[in-house]
Amino acid sequence: MDDLDIKFKLMGNLGIQIEGAGNLYIPSLKEILHLNMSTYNEYLSSLLIDTSALNTEIDENISNFDVFIVNCYHNYSFKEVSFKAISFFFKSEPSLAMEGEDVFVKLSDGRIDRSNFPFVQKVLMMGNNVKLSSPEPEYKPANSRAKKMIEMIMKNKKNKPPDKEKMDLFSILSGLIWKDNAQSLDSILAMNIFQVYNGLHTTDKIENISHTVTALYAGTIDGKKIKLSDMHWANKLE
After folding, report:
1. Model-level pTM?
2. Sign (positive/negative) of CA torsion 84, 86, 90, 93?
3. How confident is the model at residue 107, as a pLDDT?
């Protein structure tokens, strides 16, 4: 299944077939709110475990699934949260199982293993508008002076307070509810997170085009610098 197929499934709020495992469902906002947003974020964090976020060097052949399974075996609280997450997204009770040397998560309609776990993570990321964390870039100093400068840069980066978010899911929901877009509180809460972010980006695009066209007619911007064919509201979102 390619990215476009996934997007159409998410737009229709349909289950997405994970080969060998069954359907994965991205919940509606109302389902998430019944669960609690903090718990939902815990669920996502457990299933989107990422080797690059670990503060240690590991073999490049170790996959996210390997780290996931090891944590399930050796960390009871992690396993408890992860299995609740799997049950929530797959609507199936999971259990650890083994065939030969292969360890996997058994579901009623199949299994989650090394072969399909990357796709599970991909669908969860697309459905929730998140990305796996990326490691800090590696700096290799050419000499001692460069090394001191790099150490100073890295020290300053650690001391710098994180940028404040201009928007979060709560502020986006509040804006869409009160915006003139023919939506209501109930209709927006029936959406999944993918639909909400798609609505945000599409609404922004339509408004930006409307403001630009108004400015063109008013003569406040130079029309020669704008290609009108690139401004259609139905153009693909980047």
Report:
1. 0.73
2. negative
3. 95
